Amino acid sequence: MSEHHATLSWSRGESGFGYKEYSRTHLWTFPRSGQSVQAAAAPAFLGKDDCVDPEEAFAAALASCHLLTFLAIASMSGYVVDQYDDAPVGYLEKGENGRLWLARVVMHPKIVFSGEKQPSPEDLARLHEKAHHECFLANSVKTEVTWD
User: Fold this and answer.
1) What backbone torsions phi and psi does residue 112 show, to the nearest 5 degrees?
2) Which one, of 94, 95, 71, lies nearest residue 83 by Cα?
3) Model's pTM, two decimal places?
4) SS3 86
């Protein structure tokens, strides 16, 4: 139905190519918008603190998809959302096969509604559940995605 493009660029430069020598820093560029993001491995894996790492980007992408889907569902359900803030956390864990993977992403959305129609706690849970089931990215991964 649609395509979504990105480019990645890395070069060794003057450093050696021993495992602890080469830079993990690279550039993500998104051709449609022209936006670029400096990325690297997480600091625990020899990356830099001032770069986005793939694991945090993955958590942010899942939460962003949930947010956008939630807003659409809330709007179509007659609710007015004034503010939506989240602080997702991705958990890198060792799988049954012994390999590391981002096993869980827990979102912590805080939502402010206005207007006469206010969701009950049960309505809010249903909105999140529907957003989760309709989110393109949540439907694309085996990572457990939850919220509190």
Assistant:
1) -115, 125
2) 71
3) 0.92
4) coil
For residues 66 and 145, the answer to whether their CB atoms sit within 8 Å is yes
Give the pLDDT confidence of 104-139 residue by residue, as tens digits: 999 999 999 999 999 999 999 999 999 999 999 999
Closest CA to 63 of 88, 80, 43: 88
What domains can you pick out in the chain, each with its CATH number?
A: 7-45 (no CATH), 54-147 (3.30.300.20)
Nearest to 133 by CA among 56, 69, 44: 69
Tens digit of each residue's pLDDT (9 = 90 or more) over 25-66: 999 999 999 999 999 999 999 999 999 999 999 999 999 999
Question: How far is 54 from 122, CA to CA, in rounded Å?
Answer: 34
Q: What burial letters (b/e) apply to 109-138, b meaning 16+ CB within 10 Å?
A: bebebeeeeebeeeebeebbebbbeebebb
